[in-house]
Amino acid sequence: MGVFTFVCRNSGDEWTGKSLSGDLEASAGSTFDLQRKLVQTALSSDSCGGVQSSFSFVTPTSAVFQVIVGAPAAAAFVGGGAASAPSGGAAPAAEEKKEEKKEEKKEESEDEDMGFSLFD
After folding, report:
1. Digit-coded pLDDT (tens) for 50-61
2. Which residues contact 70 (CB under 8 A, 6 or more apart)?
3. What is 45-79 written as a DSSP string?
4. Higher model confidence: residue 95 or residue 66?
5. For the chain, where are the alpha helices, taking DSSP H only?
6. Taking the chain, what is the end-to-end CA distance rounded to the nearest angstrom?
7. What is the band of 86 on the pLDDT scale with cuts at 50, 70, 90?
8. pLDDT 10s digits, 95-118
9. Which residue windows does the record flag with biased composition (Basic and acidic residues) (predicted)?
């Protein structure tokens, strides 16, 4: 698994990205094209497994771009599953709450059956 971090800068109408370690670099007219080129550059160095990337502006004319090559396939499922968790996870949570309420009602009814109250 390889992690490539690039410092990206805009000079005029061209974006350039240079890796922090190594000789990898690319340039393009837009940040979108630069990201695509930097991913291809990282893949040419380490082409094993999936690819994850993250682009973050630091200032309007500079950014940091990170490419992770060889990310485990399970990470993609975790990321994808997290988006659907609220819709799928809400139903079981609601069922648990219903069960808890039923248990609370049972406990209350048991107190009533004893014929006395603790607060009298």
Report:
1. 899 999 999 999
2. 1, 2, 46, 48, 49, 50
3. H---SEEEEEEEEEETTEEEEEEEEEE-HHHHHHH
4. 66
5. 31-45, 73-113
6. 68
7. very low
8. 555 665 565 555 555 555 667 767
9. 94-108
CA distance 38 to 23: 12
Residue with tokens 């991913």: 39
Q: Which residue has the tokens 């990898």?
A: 24
Residue in the block written with tokens 């109250």: 117
Q: How far is CA 50 from CA 80, 94, 102, in A?
A: 14, 36, 47
Task: Quote the pLDDT of residue 62.
Answer: 95
Shortest CA distance to 44 belongs to which of 64, 19, 63, 62?
19
Predicted TM-score (pTM) above 0.90: no
